[in-house]
Description:
The chain has about 160 residues and is of the alpha+beta class. Helices cover about 45% and strands about 15% of the residues. The chain is built from three helices and three strands, in the order H-H-H-E-E-E. A three-stranded antiparallel beta sheet has the order 1-2-3. Helix 2 (about 20-65) packs antiparallel against helix 3. The radius of gyration is 28 Å and the shape is elongated. The model has no long low-confidence stretch (mean pLDDT about 85).
Amino acid sequence: MRLLSKLTRHTRTGNGRDGSTLTETAVVLPIFFLILFGVIEFGHVFMTIHTLNSAAQRAARLGVSAPITTANVSTLASQIVSSAIPAAKATVLVKNGDTFDVAGVDAATINYSTLPNIELSTAERRQLFIVRVSVPYSDVAILGPKWLGGLTVYGQSVMRKE
């Protein structure tokens, strides 16, 4: 009998914390999930940027060789992006990079879409060219476009024609 009374005494909550655990959980869990999903989404942004950089680099390496056209380079970059990120609607720009041959050029001030196009099959030897692949992040976002709505992510590679 004495053992039974000890068990019942210990199972009662005598410390006054009847609902505090539930309240603390209700406060902490939404904050925890917000941070968790934020980390996941930003990790996805960086994975997407890495994929675009890789696609631009592989396409630019193809463009270095002699008989390759700009259309071949654009097609390869689009294929790489669509195989890695199926929902992405990639924009591929192959531009003349002579702007970067001038010393002291600030790359942050250049509008890449206004640079002149280049046809790689007729480009001169040692001519600089840029392959830039961009995707609106709202097309590939995990949690929807609310987090990073107007963001456009891109990858690019700059190489010289051989």
